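Appendix C reproduces, verbatim, an entry submitted by the partner laboratory led by Prof. M.T., so that reviewers can inspect both the input and the predicted structure.
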Amino acid sequence: MAQSLNNLANLYHDTGRYQEAEPLVEEAIGILDRHGQAPEMRYRAYWIRSEIKWATGRRKEAVADLEEALGTIEWLRARAAAEELRRAEFFATKMEPFELMVFWQAELGDAGGVFSAMERSRARVLLEQMELGGKDLLAGLPEAEAQALRQREAEAASRVLSLRKQLDLLATRKDLSEAEKAEEGRRLERELAQAQWQYMQVRAEVRAASPAYRLALQKERKPVGLEQVRSWAEKEKALVLEYLVASKSSYVLVVPAGGPVRVEKLSVSEAQAKLLEAGAGPLKEEVLEAILRGREEAPGAREGSKRKRAGLLEQLARADRAERSGPLGPKLRALWELLVPQLEREGLLAGQYERLVVVPDRALALLPFEVLVVSGGEPVRYLVDVGPAVLYAPFCTVLLQLEGREAAGAAQAKEPVLLVGHCQYRQAPQGSRQEVLEQLAARSVYARVGGRLEELPSTALELDWLNQVYQEVGQKGMCVGMWRAAACCILPRMGWWTRVGGTCLGLWR
């Protein structure tokens, strides 16, 4: 009965017949609340009623109804599948009401409401994993049951790793023809997909059986408050930019040290649209995807299939410095102006902040803000050249939890931290005794698919700096650096060094 009423109310709502829709959804909500069943239907009923009330001018009541819908979604999420990926996928299908709350709170001018909705819209899997880190999920179960689950999980993981390694080495096998390699590759990929599915099933069983995991899921996790973020930004002299990218429009919540919190809607100007080859107007998810990831273009008169225009991320990946400062420079400058409000652009360039904290959403998580062009003169200046350090976070609740963690008291008793850097990448000579091991190395696998590993500049200096940091907190450090002999002098505190195959190996504690 409630479902029929809900469906009919939804139909009337979609056609703008609000007076006919409201009594139907009211009756449906009454039935669902009295019986305490069908939470999936309940959140949809409250969502429909909230939109009816918003459309008819009762905005305070609309927000209250939508809040009830969000609370029901969060209750459902805590009881969704035990496997993290499936729970995240479940939550991803329920994003629209959270986005709607952001839109409404932004229109009402309630920055706190916008922040709360943004934080609640982020998946909580990372928080749960942080809480469960280092815990035995099967503690408290009968030993025989726990041991059986551990063994099944280990066997499933081993099967996945074995098949991946066989795929990695397939190209180097000399006992197969090219046709046989192709057939063997297809077989291994089918078996790998099956093995991965089986591993996920075992993981889900482990978590479903775990008392600690069930408690972690059902624990109420409220996001941090906006005042906490403001206080942290003030203390750290930071600028926090938290984004929400949605199908209809996008917003950025600005939390500046020493300034008022505000919400700004992101819109593409005509000039930016021309440079970024995107539509002008509100920055929609599909527009951002086209800018960053590219888009499919309709085939020309002589072409038989669609072709994809490379997005900005792909262009950046394959561009050299001249191209980044040349053809890509204006696009990166347009993105800088699109994503960062003018007042904050000025503050970042004036040295007003010591940190820039970016909380991205959707495709923005793939964009390194450091490459945004802040000045189109000669030479081109990037944010990394003139701005503060950029810190990325999945959402502010995780950021503040990590920042608030104290260093482990027993750090001095632990084994030394091993730091490795400034490596010389080269292929092993053919026929050497290390040939088999080289085939297993990640660099060899990467090279076989066309990748090339380049030396990173200044990594020896980074190793030295990291060693200083660990010494300051009382942690024993062990650093291994491989670099050209001429550069050995930049690590004056080495305990010893020796030459290894044309490079220098340094080690110190």
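The two ends are 72 Å apart (CA to CA). Additional entries are available on request from the coordinating office.
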